[in-house]
Design brief:
seven-stranded antiparallel β-sheet, binds flavin-adenine dinucleotide, Uridine Diphospho-n-acetylenolpyruvylglucosamine Reductase, domain 2, Alpha-Beta Plaits, single chain, five-stranded antiparallel β-sheet, Uridine Diphospho-n-acetylenolpyruvylglucosamine Reductase, domain 3, alpha+beta, 4 domains
């Protein structure tokens, strides 16, 4: 098949075979982790060096050709969904750790490096990279930077933004910039911080300098089962109120427990509606003191059973169950949407009651697995895409939950980004002036709107349908982007 003139010139920027255009080759790039949306790109470029990425972006800028940077495509908000009539620039082959400096505790990595690989490389030096998304065995640092990703242990250590010291990037204009760096000194505003969380709208990160932390000397991990979700929520409030700062506080509800048990044979106390996982970490002496206090609080919160991990193996088994919960839910339902709205921690119980009531009322099953310590909910809304109207009902429940989060003083996203999926809810959280200001900042990096256009910001009415195909809710007349 002969290529169009623009693709022929694009292909000339790369060695043969690294511009994918065949239908079968493009098929695996049509969606990301949010499979409700699909779009076929014109082509997928597979660069292997930073210079190739720069050449591709300069070409896109000159030709006004939209592009989407892609890491592993695990976005749960449609962040790496292709743009119609645009290309995908996939960064998986830029996967080298360029430098690891144990003395100064930093690593410089290419964007396609897998999150967990950084900690593997740092481990012989007693160091690790703290942000630990549940997808850490497949997601890339470039994707983590674009979404300011979090994870179970971000309660104590902070999100990706707290661990990125420097970024070298090619902006959507083709200019190459370098902000921050290992020295931790900077001039003016936090430019590097501004780049983190940009959802691929500013350009492409080419090199990222990451802070490494010493591995904790000691852990105390407790799994406690409760008769009700509210009891588990109350236990979280009591732990937070006590002043303890665990590394992680997570909750899984009955449906999530069922899924994790089936998938990785995790064993949970029988007859429980919820399981709470709390992990203390730090120097041995500190953990020894804190665990006494934590065990008292948990005992007073009325669990059916509380099981402290007795060794590293039991600790890993607890985390394996938790981290597999998302994918395990695939066993319960052919399709699901994962939301990640945030509520103030003291309102967790109230939020969960609403979600359960709406789930029953709307006949949509919903599993809950969440970062309880941050108030970051992760309702997994189950549906069968083959059933007419099922996706629309699932999306309607998702929308209700997001609006509740904002009304309670929280956020529409804690870590998965806005992407395509939540862009119509941005005005629930920000004023017109605030959104206009954000758009002007994005336009300073990408004046021609070619970097991941149509993501994050609400798109006006019909234009959205043309750019990304139909949003299922719009198709059903259930939402409007006006
Ligand atoms: C089972 C599962 C569990 C998950 N658990 C978590 C979790 O605990 N916490 C969490 O935060 N997220 C979680 N996620 C969501 C997802 O893994 C994260 O958002 C992750 O950061 C995406 O990385 P990726 O490499 O897959 O990026 P992609 O999905 O490929 O891209 C994500 C965004 O980053 C942009 N991008 C990618 N690379 C670059 C680059 N080099 N420069 C500029 N922009 C770029 C893309 O354009 C897109 O907008 C989970 C997802 C799954 C499927």
């Amino acid at each position: 098949m002969s290529l169009s003139p623009i693709l022929t010139r694009l292909a000339a920027l790369l060695p043969a075979g690294r511009l994918l255009t065949g239908p079968a080759q493009l098929a695996s790039y049509e969606s990301d982790g949010l499979t409700a949306f699909q779009e076929r790109p014109l082509a997928v470029a597979v660069p292997e060096t930073a210079d190739e990425v720069v050449a591709l972006v300069r070409f896109c800028h000159a030709e006004r050709l939209p592009f989407v940077a892609r890491g592993s495509g695990t976005s749960l908000s449609g962040g790496s969904l292709p743009i119609k009539e645009g290309i995908v620039i996939t960064l998986n082959r830029l996967n080298r750790i360029l430098r690891l400096d144990p003395a100064q505790r930093f690593a410089v990595v290419q964007p396609g490096v897998i999150n967990a690989q950084v900690s593997v490389a740092a481990a012989p030096h007693g160091l690790h990279y703290a942000p630990d998304p549940s997808s850490q065995s497949i997601c890339t640092i470039g994707g983590n930077v674009a979404f300011n990703s979090g994870g179970a242990h971000c309660l104590k250590h902070g999100m990706t933004s707290n661990h990125v010291l420097g970024i070298k990037a090619v902006l959507a204009t083709g200019e190459v910039v370098e902000w921050g760096g290992a020295s931790r000194e900077q001039v003016g505003p936090d430019w590097c911080g501004l780049f983190v969380g940009n959802e691929g709208l500013f350009g492409i990160a080419l090199e990222i300098t990451l802070q490494l932390l010493p591995k904790s000397e000691c852990f105390h991990t407790v799994l406690a089962g409760y008769r009700t979700l509210e009891q588990a929520g109350d236990a979280v409030s009591a732990i937070v109120a006590s002043g303890l700062l665990p590394g992680a506080i997570e909750i899984m509800d009955a449906l999530a427990l069922e899924a994790a048990s089936a998938a990785v044979h995790a064993e949970y106390p029988p007859g429980c509606e919820a399981v709470l996982i709390v992990e203390l970490e730090g120097p041995r002496e500190t953990v020894a003191v804190e665990r006494v206090r934590l065990d008292e609080i948990i005992a007073a919160s009325g669990p059916v059973e509380a099981r402290p991990a007795r060794d590293a193996e039991e600790r890993l088994a607890i985390w394996k169950g938790r981290k597999s919960a998302f994918s395990a839910v695939g066993r319960l339902s052919p399709d699901f949407i994962v939301q990640d709205g945030v509520v103030p921690r003291r309102r967790l119980g109230e939020a969960l009651r609403h979600i359960n009531a709406w789930s029953r009322e709307m006949g949509v099953r919903c599993a809950n697995v969440f970062h309880a310590g941050d108030g970051n909910l992760h309702p997994l809304i189950l549906y069968d895409g083959r059933v007419p109207g099922a996706l629309e009902r699932a999306e309607a429940l998702a929308g209700r939950i997001l609006k509740m989060c904002v009304a309670m003083g929280g956020s529409i996203t804690g870590e998965h980004g806005v992407g395509v999926e939540k862009r119509q809810y941005l005005p629930d959280m920000f004023s017109v002036d605030e959104i206009d200001c954000m758009k002007r900042i994005a336009a300073a990096f990408d004046p021609c709107s070619i970097a991941n256009p149509g993501k994050m910001f609400p798109v006006a009415g019909a234009l959205a349908l043309v750019q990304h195909g139909l949003h299922p809710l719009e198709k059903a007349g259930l939402i409007s982007r006006e």
